[in-house]
Amino acid sequence: DIQMTQSPSTLSASVGDRVTITCRASQNIITWLAWFQQKPGKAPKLLIYKASSLESGVPSRFSGSGSGTEFTLTISSLQPDDFATYYCQQYNSYSPPFTFGPGTKVDIK
Amino acid sequence: QVTLKESGPVLVKPTETLTLTCTVSGFSLSNVGMGVSWIRQPPGKALEWLGHIFSNDEKVYRTSLKSSLTISKDTSKSQVVLTMTNMDPVDSATYFCARIRVNMMVEAFDIWGQGTMVTVSS
Strands across the sheet with B3-7, in order? Predict the structure, then answer.
C-alpha cells in the first residue's frame, strides 16, 4: 500500500501568514492527490484535486503543487476561517487503497 | 443541490453486523460520471478510506476489509449501503459517505455527507 506522510503535524500561525503544508507519498502517484480541510465535528471539505486544481467555490488563497511523491498545500494569507486540520489523500486508481495522510492541524499562534 | 446523508445504528455489539445507508440527492447513482465512497474516522484519528462503488456497479474495497465489507446500491432509491460483518470495538468511528467525480478515472471526492457516529460496545 502507498503510505502518506504530512509535515508538520501541527502548525501555529497568525492571521495573514503564508502557510505551507507538505505531503509525501511512498510511491509515485503522478498528480493523483487531493487536499481536504476538516473542522471539528464536520465532514472534510475538498479544496484541491489532481494536485493543483482548485475546487469550485474554494477561495483562491488556497493552492496546491507538486507531482510524483512530494506535494504542497499553500494558504497565501491565513484567514480566521482557515484554522482547521488539513488532510492529503492519494487516489491513484491503479493503487488502492486511497490513503489519507495523518493530518496537519493549523492553530492560532 | 447535491447532498448525501448517512443513517444507521449508533450502537452495535461486538461480532454483530453493521448496516449503514447513504441516501443521495441532486445526482443519480446511474450517472456514469459519479460514484460513492465510504470513509471512516475513529475519534481523534485520521480518515480511512473503506471502498467505493461506481455507476456500473464496479466495486473497489480496502484489501484488509475485503472479507468483511460489502458495498451495494439501489439506484431507484438513490441509496448506497455499507455492510460490515463481525464488528469490533476498533471499528468505532464516524462513518462518512462521499460522492466521487469520475472522468475516465477517479477525479475527486467532492461532496461529503455529515457523517454518522457508530460505537461498537457490549
Answer: B3-7, B18-25, B79-84, B69-74
How many residues does the structure list for chain B? 122
Whole-angstrom Cα distance, residue B61 to residue B50? 6
Mean predicted confidence (pLDDT) in B8-23: 97
* Partners of residue A101 in chain B, C-beta under 8 Å: 46
Distance from CA of A49 to the nearest CA of B (A): 6
Give the best residue of A91, A95, A99, A105 to mutate against chain B (max B CB count within 10 A): A91
Q: What is the pLDDT of residues B30-67, one digit of tens each?
A: 999 899 999 999 999 999 999 999 999 999 999 999 89
pLDDT tier at B107, thresholds 50, 70, 90: confident
Q: Residue B16 has what DSSP assignment?
A: P
One-letter amino acid at A54 equals: L
